Amino acid sequence: MTSLNSDSANLGYRHPHLLGIEGLSAQEISFLLDLSGDYAKLDPRSHSYERLLDAHTVINLFFETSTRTRTSFELAAKRLGAEVINMSVAWSSIKKGETLIDTAMTLTAMHPDVLVVRHPDSGAVKLLSEKVDCAVINGGDGSHEHPTQALLDALTIRRRRGRLEGLTVAICGDVMHSRVARSNIHLLTTMGAKVRVIAPPTLLPSGVESLGVTAYFDMREGLRDVDIVMMLRLQTERMQGSYVPSIREYFHFYGLDREKLGLAKPDALVMHPGPMNRGVEIDSELADDIDRSVIREQVEMGVAVRMACLDVLTRPLRPSPEGA
Ligand code: NCD
């Protein structure tokens, strides 16, 4: 097992940033999950963490609102001993590029060790990573990627099922606008899981099958015999115009309730990245059912995953023995 604070020469993740899951190998993903799993075993009340990030500064730079992702990164960084600065930037679409680069320049002058960035535009975090000289973690860029969410989802599944390979996972709802869906598709297919996406035609990106998934418009058909049901929030803030006829109709066809869940495997787990629209994409009582829903555990794993990512990205990158 990967040990906490293991020598950087053994580092299984050798990128300067974490911008997405796409392009990571199964070995790199496993390395991050193993290390996250080790962090998850530590007791948060015992204060026994090694202060790996003493004298380090982490800046949370959020151009979009967030509750759990931002607080989760903050907690993770503080548990490792870092100084944390939270910056929320009001986003005016008029000055886009300029504001982003200006902000990057200002922050570079403060010499942070890690920047955690959330931005409403796909690709903006990568652009920013090219302008700063510290590690950058993508906390969600537009409808593109949200890598730490996919890692915490995978860690939750692995703890419950012991593996990812061979499982069938249904990702249901607003796939079109979801960075969570995209990062999960990359991670789960790379790790050998079978992925189904279930959505109304208006919320399914065309050509989604090219990502290695099977697409369903009929939720009942798509849920048949799956191991995991991952629900997505309806991202109304990213919708221009009307994508669903009415909330009532959406819940009827695409909301998860006990009747539809009954088509999945009897022990299928229910997941949701939050924030949930209860009664829109998921039945409220089902979301709170601790026998089926692992939504709380997802939040808990979020802190462990972010500790692992901060740990890995602040270790010096030494050349690998093979590459030397
Ligand atoms: C997700 C996000 O922001 O992309 N939430 C999160 O990170 N907890 C999903 C969502 O907003 O629907």
Structure notes:
This protein has helices at residues 26-41, 68-79, 96-108, 124-129, 147-161, 179-190, 219-223, 247-254, 258-261, 284-287, 295-313, and strands spanning 57-62, 83-88, 114-119, 135-141, 168-172, 194-198, 214-216, 228-231, 269-271. By secondary structure, the chain is α/β, with parallel strands linked by helices. The strands form 2 sheets. A 5-stranded parallel sheet has the order 7-6-5-8-9. Strands 2-1-3-4 form a 4-stranded parallel sheet. The protein is globular and about 55 Å long. Residues 68-69, 140, 146, 149, 179-180, 233, 235, 273-274 line the site of N-carbamoyl-L-aspartate.
| CA gyration radius, whole angstroms | 19 Å
SSE string, helices as H and strands as E: HEHEHEHEHEHEEHEHHEHH
Helix content: 25-40%
Oligomer: single chain
| Biggest sheet strand line-up | 7-6-5-8-9
Structural class: alpha/beta
* Attached small molecules: N-carbamoyl-L-aspartate
Query: Count the helices. How many?
Result: 11
Beta-strand content estimate:
5-15%
Note the gap between the termini: 25 Å
Shape: globular
In the predicted model, the low-confidence regions spanning at least 5 consecutive residues are 320-324
Largest sheet, strands/sense/barrel: 5 strands, parallel
- What's the rounded overall pLDDT mean? 91
Strand tally: 9
Please give a handful of descriptors for the protein shown:
binds N-carbamoyl-L-aspartate, globular, alpha/beta, four-stranded parallel beta sheet, five-stranded parallel beta sheet, disordered C terminus, 324 residues, 11 helices
